[in-house]
Structure formats: C-alpha cells, structure tokens
Amino acid sequence: MKISPSILSADFTILGLELKALEDGGADYVHVDVMDGRFVPNITIGPFVVEAIRRGTGLPLDVHLMIEEPERYIDEFARAGSSIITVHVEATRHLHKTVQAIKGHGLKAGVSLNPGTPASALEAIMDDADLILVMSVNPGFSGQGFIPSSLAKIRTVRGMIAASGRNIELEVDGGIKAGNIAEVASAGADVFVSGSGIFSTPDYGATIGEMKKRLASVKA
Ligand code: DX5
Ligand code: ZN
User: Fold this and answer.
1) Ligand lying closest to the C-alpha of residue 174
2) How would you class 201 by CB atoms within 10 Å of its CB: exposed for 0-12, middle for 13-18, buried for 19 or more?
3) How far is the CA of 113 from the centre of ligand 1 (A)?
4) What percent of the chain has pLDDT over 90?
5) Could you give the CA distance from residue 107 to residue 81 in angstroms, rounded to a whole number?
6) Residue 189 contacts residue 167 (beta carbons within 8 Å)
7) Which atom of ligand 1 is nearest to the CA of 143?
8) Which among 193, 198, 207, 211 is the best mutation to test ligand 1's pocket, defined by most ligand atoms within 8 Å of the CB?
9) What is 2-219's CATH number, 3.90.78.10, 2.30.42.10, 3.40.350.10, 3.20.20.70?
10) pTM of the predicted model over 0.70
C-alpha cells in the first residue's frame, strides 16, 4: 500500500521544502497533476516544473496527465524525469499506442478513468497497463469530495486485475483523507493519492503515518 501525495496542494513558493517534508514523512510517490485547460478547466504545471521536482526529491514521480492528446507530450514528460506516466482513456484516440510509448521509455504506464467512464473501458488495455487510476472526483481541482460510487468501480477494477493475473497497481485519486482511506482500501485500492488530505494538516509525516496505520488495519 502506497501513499502518493498530490503536490498540487503544496506551497509552490517553497516547493523544495515541501518535497523534503513528504520524503521525510514517509511518502512513497509524489503525485504530479498536469492540466492543460482543455481536458480539464484548470491549467497547472508542465515538463519544466516536473524537471525541477525531479531534482528536488528521490521519490518516484507519479505524473498524472489530464491533457488532451497526451501522446504529443510523452517524450517530454519522460525526459523531465517521470517514473510513472498516467493518461486518461477519454483523452486519446490511441490508448494502446500511447501506453506503448510510455513503456518504451522504460517507465510504468498508467491508465485513468473519469468518474463517468465505466470500468469496461479498460478491457482492451489490461495486458499492457502497469497501473490503473480510478478518479474519485471529476479531475480539475484539489479539495473536492470523494464520489461514493467510486467504491463499486474500484471493486470491479480489482476483479479485472485479479482476472488478468498481472501485477497492476490500483490507484485512487480525489477526496481521500485519513478518515476514509480504510474504506477505499477495503474496496481494493493499493495506491492512494491525497492532496488537501495531507497538505491541509500541520504535520505531513504524522498524517501519512496515520494513513498507513489505518491501511495496516485493513490488511490485517
Ligand atoms: C484532481 C487531481 C487530484 C487532486 C487531489 O484533478 O487529479 O490529484 O489534486 O486532491 P484532493 O486529495 O484534495 O482531492
Ligand atoms: Zn491526480
């Protein structure tokens, strides 16, 4: 079980210190939300900032592309130092080709679903994806509430992963806090993105520790 804090909720005037606090606090990945103002209304960060984040931490960079035609930018985000690149099924006409392009850089390829997209949209990519990202909010902004119907989708995707016989990570993103992480884990997730759930608390390490404690109780 891994915690992937979303850097979007960090204080960007002290990004290096924020990264250090996450690393010292026991984060497993750093989740980087890339938005283009087209696939989602918001515009956030590009490869230039990903490259700076890469220099600011030794943690794997879990780069979530919320952009149209992500295939146009795979090479740039790979060169910037991504460890995992996740694309949305809704954003590309060429999902298989895009996933192969990510893997061609030696990176883990993630595939994400918006809340309104059924799990069945993953069927043809289960032999290739290294990570599935179930969005539990509509992407675009941090600080939204967890959509309860996401739990059923997480259970369905967990079943699909088991049937594939492959080692695919199941990540969930949006509205996750210490208070609901155990429920999300019970549904079958094993990587948990959290933005405001970590950055709105005074001690990131204590919050990540509390999340891991609650996850340990699910496994037992
Ligand atoms: C939403 C982003 C999320 C977001 C998570 O579009 O993909 O990663 O930053 O933030 P919280 O945990 O506050 O919902
Ligand atoms: Zn995200």
Assistant:
1) 1
2) middle
3) 14
4) 99
5) 10
6) no
7) 13
8) 193
9) 3.20.20.70
10) yes
Distance (Å, whole) CA 205 – CA 24: 7
The residue whose CA has the least distance to atom 4 of ligand 1 is: 142
d(CA 132, CA 158): 10
Residues 153, 187: Cα–Cα separation, whole Å: 9
Closest residue by Cα to atom 2, ligand 1, is 139
Chain segment 108-141, per-residue pLDDT in tens = 999 999 999 999 999 999 999 999 999 999 999 9
Residue type, 47: P
196 lines ligand 1 (CB under 6 A): yes
